Amino acid sequence: MNTVTVFNKEMYKEMYLDNSPLLANLNLDLKSNVSSLSSSDTSSDLGVTNHKSFPGRADLDIENNDSNLEVVDLFSLDDLWNSSLKKDQDGTLDVVGTLESLIDQNEANVDFKNLAAAITDPSHPNKDSNHLEFITVLTITKVVTQINNVLDSTINEASLQKASRLCLALFDLFKYHFELDQSHPNFGFRNFGVLLGFRKYNIIKPFLTTTSLAPKYGFVDQQKLKRCFTVLASMHLMNKHLFDNLIFSFHEKETWDCFCLVFSSKSRTLPSDSNGLYSLFENFNNCATLNQSTLNEDRSSDVLLDSIFAHEPSELLVEGMKSLLRTHDICVNFELSFKHLNELLVIYTSGTHGKEMIALYFWNKPEAFERMFEFVNSGTDITNSKKIGYFLLAKLGEFMVINLRQTSDQESLSKVLMKINNANFTQCLGISEDSQQYKINAYTMRILFEVVDQNFKLNYSVEENLLMYLKTSLRTINSSLETFDSYLELFKLLTDMGSRLSIYSLLETIQFVLSNNLNRELFGAFGECEHTLKVLKAPFGFEFIPPLGKSNFIYENNLNHGDEPVKGLRSETQQMFSVFKTESYRRSTSLKLLKDCVLMCSIIKSKIYVFLRENNDELGIMRFSAEQKLVTKDEVPTKTRAKTGTRLAFFKSQHGLDYKVMNKAVELNLAATIDCLKLCNNYDKVIKFSENGSDFDEPFHRLLYHYQLDSLLSFLLIYKEFGLLSLFKSLKNILLQDLGLIPIASKVLSNLFGFENTSSQPKLRFITGIIHQSEILSNLVRQFVELFDDGYSNSFKYLLNFMKLHPSPIKPSKIPKGTVELDLKLFANAFETKDTKVQTA
Q: CA-CA-CA-CA torsion for 84, 85, 91, 94, nearest 10 degrees?
């Protein structure tokens, strides 16, 4: 018998504030133990509010109570824990007995004692987070049981509404653990997901059935059910137990027919380079940092879902599931024959969805992948089967090592991947045969410095190898940056390397170079990519970097890597698959990697600025040159208010080193941000006006915009008054040189100031507070509107309303009004002259 000590409520508030997976309005029977899960517990109701909070939160709709109460207002976290477990006769909590009661003992062989040790062993390093995962999984099992009970009863409008809300709640319950980094020990229910792999807790069937019945019984938001189901299906790809359940479900004719009824009727074939189901999951996972700040009020997940979907869920899911089931049918009885290998090759070359599904299948079921590796390396004969196998190993190995994280129970797969992939990948990840711990090292940072050294000298749309290593390095940095201490370690590493750039300056530079290149490649043909302004380039000092040759690793990839015995096989494979060396293929692959790198830069940058924002006031990382006390407009005489309402006045001189360092940081951040926002704006224009706009990667530019806004928000909260003053000064300088950037600047300012009315977090309201306390800043807002207002943009309308709430003491400028006369004859002559020149040419 295993016993467990109940966890402490305050401890969990501190550890997981604003990060709860238990987000739904679950009005479950918390006072009953888990043994009652199979009973017909269908009397409770449930909503879909998506709050970010600490573990155990589940807003309950209690009768005769107009407000939604948090579960901790009614039950302590101890109550949640105790009610989830079976008890012995003496009242002792029985973890093993609880686990055994969840499933039929004849269904599978599960080591319940090891599972129980993850939450009962006081020396376990992840015991607290395992508690959270365990409770979440138990809650999911109960919700699934309730949905099945509803569907087994007489279906009417009320019961279907209830089943639909329960399904949306399942999505909320899954979110937290699949937003974690893949290297996190609790990512994707890594410990207790085995419980959700059993047939009685199959999530696919009840969710799909509910979605199919929703229109018939008046549930109006079927589209949201379809989107949530699609994201849940992508989550199933990331846990081997859920993965098995996904395949099992769709192999049943009844489930497949239901799926076709819901998703296939309006689906169309996606372009071959469209993102697949894993790309959807990657976009979802990339929103984790945003959920702590700019998306923290997205209670219904509507903004999240709008951000991550490029196409209709029907199109995305149908193509993905077809590829997955075809791969399974080939590999379930995998024979290393030309026929089977060629069929896999056809799926791989069919598009991104095919490539992703094959890689994820082998990742979840590595035995077939390991057999293919042994086949290719056996003997000295060179056959077409071996050539195809060698090619698939090289390409799938690249995908796995760049995008997926191997765990301790995938040791054999990790060893194969280390042999398949060239050493640049393992060095970027900081792993070796002795240690599978991902760690930032000097080689990881070397890839980033290569981009700085080459800057605009390279055409990144054909630098597939460099971008693969860059994405691998950026993902390693992102995975490692989980705490402020990890940021300090990274800072120390750069210092030891003798870098003249800080980590955030390095990221700003890389983001500027890559986003500018991406902008030119994507939108140059549409005439939407104006030349890069010299004023944006100037802060980076590219002209002072001497020309350098490419590093050798840029020329290395998996198809020219391997031991001497396979040298002949490698050479013939390269000739057989020469089509993958063409410029069009390289460009398509490189542009996808380029977008991934730009977005990953933005995510890391946002993380770092959040760390600095949270620790700056305590540690004084960003020091001002003199007094730290801010003199506000209420503390000084009227005549001197404008001179003392900001810390800028405390700088002794604009020629001082402290002023120059801070001003340079603002210039770098603003230049990189404006360039990315320009890229987002071009996406908006092309998607809106182009016939092919729907084929553009909308999730990329939506997430990129959110992250630029997020990092700029944190940046301004670090630099406070000085940052805002420098922002307005630099914006004015940039906009006067390119009036086309005015809509971009006005939109981001209106969004930054918009947090005042929507956010419940004081830190996100602090920008408004700074402006309210400083007459200089209030005047700058007014001047910005007076100078650039176009008279019809919604962003300027918001800024005008903002000015009413935070008025400037300076009266509005008197702008002289006049009339403009257009000489149509003059314009007609100009057009005729232009047409004549074109015809002559």
A: -170
